[in-house]
Design brief:
Blueprint lengths: L2 E10 L3 H19 L1 E7 L4 H7 L5 H8 L3 E6 L15 H11 L4 E7 L12 H4 L3 E7 L9 E6 L10 E6 L5 H16 L4 E6 L5 H14 L6 E6 H10 L6 E4 L1 H12 L9 E5 L4 E5 L16 H13 L4 H16 L2 E2 L12 E2 L2 H10 L2
Parallel strand pairs: 1-2, 1-3, 3-12, 5-10, 8-9, 8-10, 13-14
Antiparallel strand pairs: 4-5, 4-11, 6-7, 11-12
Helix pairs in contact: 1-10, 1-11, 1-12, 6-7, 8-9, 10-11, 11-12
Bound molecules: nicotinamide-adenine-dinucleotide.
Nicotinamide-adenine-dinucleotide binds next to helix 4.
């Protein structure tokens, strides 16, 4: 029996339409093999939505996303819509708006090294050998959403007495917010190597001490999963020194933002990194990179981050790990054969064969 899922496609701007077409192609092909079929709706988000409707997140787009089983997004933005005028709409408002409206509090960013691309990493091959980690970042709380203010301080109290501007941001978490993201990390770890690094700054921050307490309370429900506490400054160092020690790493919003960008460089190219944003309802899958306006329309963008986002969709939204594994294996096989888009082609490896976006999608399909 064929199981059908409805997918909301959000191609967005720049290279978005080119790479999402390859993601869809791979999804259909892997579905045909595993008895899954997909019905697609396509909606506007970002710059293209501003052009058509005047807003980056039209109501119809949100409705289409909410009515689907999963959302596949490519990327939004571009110089055409860049503005510092707060009265004008910006493409990123669509991105933040849809994450918020769908309640996507967990951002999952896997960092895995494809052996064939080891030379593309900023680190030595022996350091990144065996790296396969997942950063679970809290996405809707913490410093980025806390109370903040900027004001003129007549007194200059506590700062040497001089009057001037002052500003503050607050890092606030409730037990509920911590518990749901940590639980998410532990549930995910059970599908991987059963180890969770809980990253905080409990030697200084009260919010981190609460984080650590709650993390251990949750851990007690998962006796089969190991918990390792790590201070964020040490984690930043360990990511470079010994990245292979990590499996699942869970952390608050800002720590996760910074550490996941650091970790992305282990893999060598932005064009390889997928991500999933999950909540309690419909989830959203997207590459970690942007809309790459500099190469849009040229047919040379790397579609693999988008294709690996499809892999995550099968794994996390539909629990179809065999189909997801097939995609991962196919991508690996294509890379092992030396096929490369421009961003991952090494000048010093003449055996690498340069191909375009569509060819890369076709090759992944042919290896499924
Ligand atoms: P970018 O990620 O779009 O591009 C950075 C560099 O990486 C560029 O040289 C680009 O050509 C290259 N690149 C990115 N993805 C690639 C791919 N799949 N294949 C080959 N090369 C690739 O970042 P940017 O240039 O800083 O931003 C461009 C636009 O994207 C901006 O408007 C920005 O706001 C937006 N953006 C969107 C998202 C998103 O939609 N999630 C994320 C980041 C940036």
């Amino acid at each position: 029996m064929t199981t059908n899922y409805s997918i909301c496609l959000l191609p967005g701007d720049g290279i978005g339409p080119e790479i999402i077409a390859e993601g869809r192609k791979v999804l259909d092909a892997v579905g045909a093999k595993h008895g899954l079929s997909f019905t697609y709706s396509e909606a506007l988000l970002g710059g293209c939505a501003i052009d058509a409707t005047g807003t980056a997140l039209p109501d119809e787009t949100l409705a289409a996303a909410q009515a689907s089983d999963a959302v596949l997004l490519a990327a939004v933005g571009g110089p055409k819509w860049d503005t510092t005028d707060p009265a004008k709409p910006r493409p990123e408002q669509g991105l933040l708006g849809i994450r918020k409206a769908l309640g996507l509090y967990a951002n999952l960013r896997p960092v895995r090294i494809f052996k064939a691309l080891a030379d593309a990493s900023a680190l030595k091959p022996e350091v990144i050998d065996g790296v396969d980690m997942l950063i679970v970042r809290e996405l809707t709380g913490g410093l980025y959403f806390g109370r903040r203010e900027r004001f003129y301080d007549e007194e200059g109290c506590g700062a040497g007495g001089a009057a001037g501007q002052r500003a503050y941001d607050t890092l606030e978490y409730s037990e509920y917010e911590i518990e749901r993201i940590v639980r998410h990390a532990f549930d995910t770890a059970r599908k991987r190597s059963c180890r969770v690094h809980s990253i905080d700054k409990a030697n200084v921050l009260e919010s981190s001490r609460l984080w650590r307490e709650v993390a251990h309370r949750v851990a007690a429900d998962y006796p089969d999963v190991e918990i390792v506490d790590m201070l964020v400054d040490n984690a930043a160092m360990q990511l470079i020194n010994n990245p292979a020690q990590f499996d699942v790493a869970v952390t608050e919003n800002m720590f996760g933002d910074i550490l996941s960008d650091e970790a992305s460089m282990l893999a060598g190219s932005l064009g390889m990194l997928a991500s999933a944003s999950l909540g309690d309802g419909v989830a959203l899958y997207e590459p970690s990179h942007g809309s790459a306006p500099d190469i849009a329309g040229k047919g040379i963008a790397n579609p693999l981050a988008q294709i690996l986002s499809v892999e995550m969709m099968l794994r996390y939204s539909f629990d179809k790990s065999e189909a997801a594994d097939d995609i991962a294996r196919a991508v690996e096989a294509v890379l092992d054969e030396g096929w490369r888009t421009g961003d991952i082609k090494q000048v010093e490896t003449p055996a690498d064969k340069l191909i375009g976006t569509v060819q890369m999608g076709d090759l992944v399909v042919s290896h499924l």
